[in-house]
Amino acid sequence: MILQRNKLILGEKNLKDITDDICEPVETLPGKGWVLMFIGALSLLLFYLVILGTVIAKGMGLLGVNHPNAWGTMIITFVFWIGIGHAGTLISAVLFLFRQKWRTSVARTAEAMTVFAVMTAGLFPLLHTGRPWLDLWLFPYPNQRGPLWVNFRSPLLWDVFAVSTYATVSISFWYIGMVPDFATIKDRAKNKVRRMIYGALSLGWRGTGRNWAHYEMLYLILAGLSTPLVLSVHTIVSFDFAVATLPGWHTTIFPPYFVAGAIFSGFAMVVTLMTLVRIGFPAFKDYITIDHMEVMNKIIMTTGMLVGYAYASEFFIAGYSGNIYERFVFINRAFGPYGWSYWIMVSCNTIFPQIFWFRRFRRSIPVMFVVSIFVNIGMWFERYVITITSLHRDFIPASWGNYAWSFFDAAVLFGSFGMFLTLFLLYLRAFPAISIAEVKPVLPVGREKGQGGHH
Amino acid sequence: MAQQQIGGLAAIFLDEHLTVTAATRCREAGLKKFDAITPYPVHGMEEAVGIRRSILPYFTFGGGVVGLVVGLWFTIWTSAYSWPINVGGKPFNSLPAFIPVCFELTILFAALTSLAAFGYMCSLPKIDPPMIDPDLSSHKFAIFVPSDDHGYDAGKLEQMFKDLGAAEVKKVAVF
Fold first, then answer.
1. Which of A25, A91, A363, A370 is buried most, with the most CB atoms less than 10 Å from its CB?
2. Interface ipTM
């Protein structure tokens, strides 16, 4: 055997050590670091709630949306969070189908990130309607107005179905993955309340051979369903733009371009969160190793170049099409009043990740943390560029106008992180943050001599 | 399928390979209703216990087909029959535009049907089911033979499990 695989789990661990390590955060009181971060996140969440309450009470006019920029921060940030969610599904479902064993350590937390990101994202279109108390109109239900049905030809309605299906399936997939681990925590519980709570969450799972056979099949099927689902969701999100006839939006490259961008930004967020998890729970360093981080950085660089290709291709096609409006939009995008946002996007997304060509930087926690933050910034700006620069100057100069960025735009954007981080921090303490039942079977990887770990 | 609660003999092992061997021996001895209890899905256990491939995919397929049909029927019925509205001169039955919704409903129905079928086949959720050993969800493995299994002989089985290297063999009142 020439190529010996690296160990997926470091340290000389046995099965019990794995259970102990992963259950520890759930079974102990949080430390100072967690409490401080939680207070910060919770304060931001409370601030967010006040801001959202004000926006609901006073109206969407508090944000910078105006004519011609009818879409603004809410839609931009919706696409941003939905995109982040996609990497979680990619890790948990697509890499599962590709039999990538390294995914086991990060899949649970990535999937949690998906669920929370979709929850954070889901609020935006609901609030952007301006009258969120009428949001039930988004769903086709029998009513006394005809019955008047929704318009199934509208991409915005496709989005309603795509995002709600995505949320449902992601939560199911995440939850089913945790059922055996809940049973583990229940069996270890020393006090009655914990036993009761985790017993209920575990649905009475006992791990019999027959149940595992069905379980593995269910997991495979949900992974198989999530894979086309995740591609369809961001495709449909891109349709929100691409189906409109606006120059800068009306392009066929949007679906793959959006999906690549989503994976790119999502992996960056996974890296950001994982570096923090490794600091917060040092015991997890044996499970989420530098090798794991390196692989994710490679994916960030690859998808970053895909996104860069899409930027270039858009420009080329705009010039090659001979359409003066299309051509103008792209020149305006790079050199017009919002040129600064375009260059932030290009540098954060295509230039900074190139540092990962060097193994030393790919494996450096501080470097990857900083780059992942830049990628997140860049990907938010990508949606900003797509939305605002296309809208603000379209066909007729008489209808041009700039986006009126206000305090509430910034507050909504930053506040949404409060919601996401609060949920994520609670998750780290309440749920097993690494899949106990999935990590154990990969323990022999890299340990079998001469076999290369074929099971 | 639903297992009724019944007593029997449980052998606890500390090694997954031993457990697979024990399961194979049980099957060769003609036992049919025995099962393995493991903290994670053990490779080769299904063959050793003699568990057939899960029929779950059939439910998934059925759910998916129902979702697709419901999606097609609902979009076409609402847009072209119940209350047709002319949107930008597009045909009432704009089938290509209905594909995304039909696709999402296919996935949604398939996933929820699979979940429900899984719950039914594993008889979950179950409130506080009896347990052989709390470590079976952490680092121990067990073979449980119910007392009504074909050719159940507690003495002989106990001897067989001990010979195979079981850490503990015990009678279980109810499982």
1. A91
2. 0.93
